[in-house]
Fold:
Amino acid sequence: MIDHIGINVSNFERSKNFYTAALSPLGYKLVKEYDAAETGFKNAAGFGVDEIADFWIVDEQVNNPPVHVAFTADSSEKVKTFYEAALRMGGKDNGMPSVRRHYYYPNYYGALVLDPDGHNIEVVCYDSPI
Structure:
């Protein structure tokens, strides 16, 4: 089981605002934040549900190549809401909300967005509306 994951971002404030808005439909919120003085090296922000941060961004040289992270939603509506919020915050379309039967399961419904640094962020659910 994965406890948490972190990605590096080039503009901490921009990415913090992006993820705050994009992950909100999933119940995620900013639950921890440290500045460089506290960490001794870089700014960091943790997002999660129920006050447990499982997704972190760090103000550091961007991962190369960019990473892929997939979050689970409990409905296709939340997948769509994530996608729309991410695009509003400057994300780039990398796969509009749709059924993707060629992926893992018959009811796999997901959307993919490139974050401001090119990381491929996906949200998926298994209650395909089709």
Notes: The domain at 5-60+67-125 is CATH 3.10.180.10 (2,3-Dihydroxybiphenyl 1,2-Dioxygenase; domain 1). The beta strands are 5-9, 29-34, 44-49, 52-59, 68-72, 92-99, 109-114, 120-125. The chain has one domain: 5-60+67-125. The two ends are 31 Å apart (CA to CA).
